Amino acid sequence: MVEDRRLAVLRAIVEDYVSTHEPVGSRALAERHSLGVSPATIRNDMAALEDEGLIAQPHTSAGRVPTDQGYRVFVDRLSQVKPLSVAERRAIGTFLDGTVDLDDVMQRSVRLLAQITRQVAMIQYPSLTRSTVRHIELVGLGASRILLVLIADTGRVEQRVIDTGVPMSDDLLGRLRNRIVERVNGIRLVDVAPQVADLIESFPLNERPAVATVIASLLETVVERHEERVMLAGTSNLASFGEDWGGSVRPVLEALEEQMVLLRLLGESRSGDSLTVRIGHENEVAGLVSTSVVTVGYARGDEVVAQLGVVGPTRMDYPSTMGSVSAVARYVGRILTEQH
Amino acid sequence: MVEDRRLAVLRAIVEDYVSTHEPVGSRALAERHSLGVSPATIRNDMAALEDEGLIAQPHTSAGRVPTDQGYRVFVDRLSQVKPLSVAERRAIGTFLDGTVDLDDVMQRSVRLLAQITRQVAMIQYPSLTRSTVRHIELVGLGASRILLVLIADTGRVEQRVIDTGVPMSDDLLGRLRNRIVERVNGIRLVDVAPQVADLIESFPLNERPAVATVIASLLETVVERHEERVMLAGTSNLASFGEDWGGSVRPVLEALEEQMVLLRLLGESRSGDSLTVRIGHENEVAGLVSTSVVTVGYARGDEVVAQLGVVGPTRMDYPSTMGSVSAVARYVGRILTEQH
DNA sequence: ACTTGGCACTCGGCAGCAAGGAGTGCCAGT
DNA sequence: ACTGGCACTCCTTGCTGCCGAGTGCCAAGT
Questions:
Q1: Which candidate from B135, B163, B249 shows the least CB-CB separation from A249?
Q2: Nucleotides in C strand less than 7 A from protein CB
Q3: A186 chain-B contacts, CB cut-off 8 A
């Protein structure tokens, strides 16, 4: 009973703070939300919430502000994902209509997400791991360098320059290409390794060193480069809520410049396609302690192939953000699924 | 004589302002630079410079600040490119050593440039126009969609998904691929069009619609997608000189997010490989009126293939920036040249 | 056992004011 | 043509006092 009202107070504080960006006091709370109690009672509740570490005051005699933990409770127990407005849905539809390329889909989606959330959006390219090999091509680049191109059924193309040390004839390249293709065509990338492992034995001794290098590179390509690419959009939105976090946008920008960081952000929430919210210090990245990250997986068919999400200030509008993120993920999934 | 001293005063003002970021007055100027005249004389010169529109004062009774035009004169007549320090040269060497991929070269170079200039760096991918075709591959993606992959001798790979409307057999794809390759292999991209124009006539009537679509896409790929890709680094450096331009970093970030804007910035200075500096309002991009852009072309062999450069505040250290930009361009050129 | 009104207290923010100082423009002298 | 002197402007800084929002606590009411 009492506990319920306390949570209602917390919810009210979060909502007010998110919309006004100013510490919220007991009087204003009592006025704007119909909690049915007086400011004095709210003060008592606030004191209790502060003891629990859910809210804090920037200075004595200032209003209260939610802490990271406060947002956590809000997200977990007090809020529900807010569905998108009709206008937004329509916007998504028109925005993502008529895509061709995988690149195109990724780029449009991430821009769209940045636009509707007014935050920084990111999207990870579909994992190579779960996709299958469509084609492999070897192209001599003169001397001892060759280009390995791997085309996955997701439409993604991986390329890699290999230095074999010794020259390879076009004939050899062709034969090798054919052997590889006939072994791995149509199988999943994860299953490539065992298929090509013994391939080398079918080549004469003098060709083996070069062949070995190529195969090694191929294996690296399929196992290492899983999901390395992340696309970003909306960094200019950082400027809006500029002075919010510790004075400067710099650490955030720095963090977002690092592919590795982005991959960790997206990768860690690898619990399938469920919506993940990491708030403030829950992010282990130094520069992002005053941001929240909302991510979700998107699927091709019924298999989750990668993640997308947004980065924003801890005092973001969680219900709307979560709604937008999951909506875009669904649309992206639908497009990827339809395109095959 | 007098004119000379005035310019010396302008130079001193620019240098001091760039290093202190504060309006500079006549007294400080007389002290820090040995101009051999008294503050009063300098004041007269300043008044003259102000009449010419080269400097301005933010408020009455504040020091002077260079205007865009002032910087222009400084860059054109008063400064010379400052060569890099030994340490910096060494840094470049080690940083760019051991690159394999074209992507790798681009990424490392742009990061390096951002790091040593402490500004935002950008680099354009080598133009496809001037390079030659190394290989072309057509891969069926099922149904009526095929993937066109074009590999240039610069190591760059262009891919494009084509919807032919009608299914194409692997046999047809193979024949078409072979025909195209034998026609265009080794020739420059700009010369591809005439070579493949009449290719369609060698196919039977029933295959022509599909073939026509593919060839049309190929032509688009070689003529339209010249130099579309630009890579960016160091945006977090924007935060350093944050409050400099009109209060917010936002317009700058917004401008830099647009590929088109970047391409214009790099593309407009298409006067060969000469160092170009565009100052403040000389940039026609709305968001960048309070930034300066320094660009230069880089070459593969003896042919300029693309541009690179930096974006920073108008009150940047022009001599050093220009030195760094052209040094990195030379190194990049050398690497590209060596790799073939 | 809660809730409520009252009350004293804290503290940040803001207007107003004065002093200080940097810098300018101009003039008269060399 | 340069210089020193001088009056003037106006930004900056620090100080003051005041106001108000907001709190915590207590005693009284339900």
A1: B249
A2: 2-6, 9-12, 21-27
A3: none
Backbone dihedral angles phi then psi of residue B101, each to the nearest 5 degrees: -70, 160
Q: Is the CB of B28 under 7 A from strand C?
A: yes
Higher-pLDDT residue of B54, A102: B54
The reply to whether A29 Cβ lies less than 7 angstroms from strand D is no
Nearest CA in chain A to B248: A239
Angstrom distance (rounded) from CA B106 to CA A221: 20
Q: How far is the CA of B2 from the C1' of C29 (A)?
A: 22
CA distance A119 to chain B (A): 13
Nucleotide nearest to B61 (CA to C1'): C23
pLDDT at B270 (0 to 100): 62
Tokens representing A15 are 């909502």
Q: In this model, does residue B199 exceed pLDDT 90?
A: no
Residue with the bigger pLDDT between A163 and A141: it is: A163
Percentage of chain A with pLDDT > 90? 44
Expressed in percent and rounded to 5, the helix, strand and coil fractions of chain B are 50, 20, 30
Beta strand ranges found along B5-132 (DSSP E): 55-56, 65-66, 120-124
B242 touches chain A (CB under 8 A): yes
A99-143 per-position pLDDT tens digit? 777 888 999 999 999 999 999 999 998 887 778 888 888 887 777
pLDDT 10s digits, A203-262: 888 888 888 988 988 888 877 665 578 999 999 998 877 655 555 788 999 999 998 899
Chain B positions touching A159 (Cβ under 8 A) are 101, 157
Characterize the bridge pairing of strands B55-56 and A133-140.
unpaired
Contacts of B249 in chain A (CB under 8 A): 238-239, 242, 249
- Least Cα distance to A136 among A114, A124, A115, A153 occurs for A153
Is residue B227 over pLDDT 60?
Answer: no
| CB-neighbour burial class of residue A188 (10 A; exposed 0-12, middle 13-18, buried 19+) | middle
B257 touches A at CB < 8 Å: yes
φ/ψ bin of A21: left (φ > 0), alpha (ψ from -120 to 50), beta (otherwise): left
d(CA A74, CA A12): 10
> Which structural domains are found in chain A, ordered by start?
2-76 (1.10.10.10), 86-125+228-339 (3.30.450.40), 129-223 (3.30.390.10)
